[in-house]
Amino acid sequence: GDSVTQMEGPVTLSEEAFLTINCTYTATGYPSLFWYVQYPGEGLQLLLKATKADDKGSNKGFEATYRKETTSFHLEKGSVQVSDSAVYFCALSPSRGSSNTGKLIFGQGTTLQVKP
Amino acid sequence: DGGITQSPKYLFRKEGQNVTLSCEQNLNHDAMYWYRQDPGQGLRLIYYSQIVNDFQKGDIAEGYSVSREKKESFPLTVTSAQKNPTAFYLCASSIYGVNTEAFFGQGTRLTVV
Q1: Which residues of chain A lie closer than 8 angstroms to B5, CB-CB?
Q2: pLDDT at site A51
């Protein structure tokens, strides 16, 4: 079935450090892939997305590339800030033909803490 | 402004009581979802609806009920049968179909006292 696996956290970095949060997926066909961010006590916000292989989603300095060959969608940022401290969720929207069509499948979330 | 509104933000319930969480959207989305989030954990799907007057159970539907009488509204009732209802509840909506992202409300934190 469709699933998403994220690296376990928490991830603790110093300000201006390079960030990578790994995400791999299992799915039939060609799902769409997303990264969401959740700040404390709030709902999830869409950070970026990619809808086909080799697409690169980007927003607010964050990037992720849809790698079909490695079934991955790793989140990266070149220089993190304290304000980036949050929980990050990788997710997929299954393609047509999946038994999970119409649902959004989430990873477990990775907590990022950035220290000044 | 278009968006999803959940209310209330905080809710306290006595054991044995039913309680209903509100979710309203004005994005004209066909699909709506309820998720439960426990501390340090991911999101678990409770119920989802892809069209008015129809809904499906998610992964953890026991002890919950929903209705979808209007496109804009998808209330969730946490019944007394739910053994451990204290959690953060998130409502989301999306365009119906494949490969679509979901938009989330701000969440309701339910505490059983």
Answers
A1: none
A2: 92
